[in-house]
Specification:
CATH architecture of the largest domain: Alpha-Beta Complex
Order of helices and strands: HEHEHEHEEHEHEEHHEHEHEEHEHHEH
Helix content: 25-40%
Oligomer: single chain
CATH superfamily of the largest domain: Spore Coat Polysaccharide Biosynthesis Protein SpsA, Chain A
Number of helices: 14
CATH class of the largest domain: Alpha Beta
Number of domains: 2
């Protein structure tokens, strides 16, 4: 048994546990499936804090029926729907455990999900919030497999994690120290949308990282309640404007690597530009010649996408990829170390409308893009 595992066993025996906070608004069968999956698949010591956010009588009766079945259970009942964010904060105020897991009621958890997330948090002091693997995060269940079978196939990834640009709110394990330092969710976002993104920015500014626990798996039906709201598009627009007023827009950056690094310093600077951009919540698409990828150590991060292309006609392939981007997905900034790519994109800047830079320092590139886009720090 290794030292880290001994520490986990000792901490569990000393009463460490997790409070699972679940906001509920109607959706009886979906809520039942979520609760039953927690009962059958959760071994780590935990309590349930359910916020009944003005649900109908059928859901209220079901939740009340759990009082005799679940030992460590708290139910907060709101007479009307106070909105998702206020419900979350009610649950956080009720919680006291070393870890708090915000869990949507449209999820199905699998064996070992919570203990694996807690393990990742224990082993990594700098990690403040943990997501599980999920179909929401592009780990879809293959055809022919059940959710539990797919979760079982991830056992080889036990203890492994990848860095995220932010965590998704469907299932967020948050350390108590983070909540004490950062506080609650911003209730300006009311019903929902962007509330977890705002919270993650605050957590990031406090110096914490975000992780995806690769072995843990939680299936998410995704915005079942939100999809029924007639005002969801207006709500999304309003909250996006609120978020961008606070934090500014995130950049979409295309980084084109057409040439090998000149030296070790050049290699390191390129890697740092890519990683720093990702950590600053910018989306980075790395376009690189297939034969050059092994020359760089590209960090694993949810904000970095790597696209390998054949060296033949490489500048023209990159050009085609960039100009065919949908309007909402266009790049704000293009960085390249290839002169041919630079000149082609410079000539056709009236099409892609991005700022183009040839081998700049990161600070200068971001500064120039912020001037053009009005992005705030």
């Amino acid at each position: 048994m290794d030292i880290s595992h001994k520490n986990k066993v000792n901490q569990i025996s000393n009463g460490v546990k997790c409070d699972i906070v679940i906001p509920v608004w109607n959706e009886l069968e979906i809520t039942k499936n979520c609760i039953e999956s927690i009962i059958s698949s959760t071994r780590f010591p935990h309590s349930l804090i359910i916020i009944d956010n003005g649900s109908n009588a059928l859901v209220a009766d079901y939740l009340n029926s759990l009082r005799g079945k679940i030992k460590d259970l708290s139910i907060i009942t709101n007479q009307q729907n106070l909105g998702y964010v206020k419900a979350i904060n009610q649950g956080f105020k009720e919680s006291s455990a070393e870890f708090v897991c915000l869990l949507n009621n449209d999820t199905i958890v699998t064996d070992g999900w919570l203990s694996e997330m807690v393990d990742i948090a224990y082993d990594n002091v700098g990690v403040g919030i943990v997501n599980p693997s999920s179909n929401t995060l592009a780990q879809s269940v293959p055809k022919g497999q059940t959710i539990q079978e797919f979760a079982g196939s991830l056992k080889a990834s036990k203890g492994s994690w990848g860095e995220l640009g932010q965590c998704s709110g469907f299932c967020m394990l948050i350390k108590r120290e983070v909540i004490e330092k950062i506080g609650l969710f911003d209730e300006s976002y009311e019903i929902g949308y962007f509330e977890e993104t705002d919270y993650c920015r605050r957590v990031q500014n406090a110096g914490y990282q975000f992780a995806r626990a690769k072995r843990a798996y939680v299936y998410h039906l995704d915005r079942v309640s939100f999809d029924k709201r007639p005002d969801k598009e207006e709500l999304f627009r309003k909250n996006r404007e609120l978020f961008e007023h606070h934090w500014g827009e995130s950049l979409r950056i295309a980084y084109i690597i057409a040439n090998p690094p000149n030296n070790e310093m050049d290699k390191h600077e390129t890697e740092q530009i890519i990683l720093t951009s990702a950590k600053d919540s910018h989306k980075v698409c790395l376009y690189i010649k297939r034969n050059l990828l092994s020359r760089f150590d590209i960090a694993e991060h949810s904000n970095i996408w790597v696209f390998k292309f054949n060296p033949l006609f490489f500048p023209f392939i990159c050009f085609f990829k960039i100009i065919t981007k949908k309007r909402k997905k266009r790049f704000n900034l293009i960085i390249t170390n290839g002169r041919i790519s630079f000149y082609i994109l410079k000539v056709f800047c009236f099409i892609h409308k991005a700022k183009i830079m040839f081998n700049p320092h990161l600070e200068r590139a971001i500064e120039e893009s912020q001037k053009n886009k009005g992005i705030k720090q």
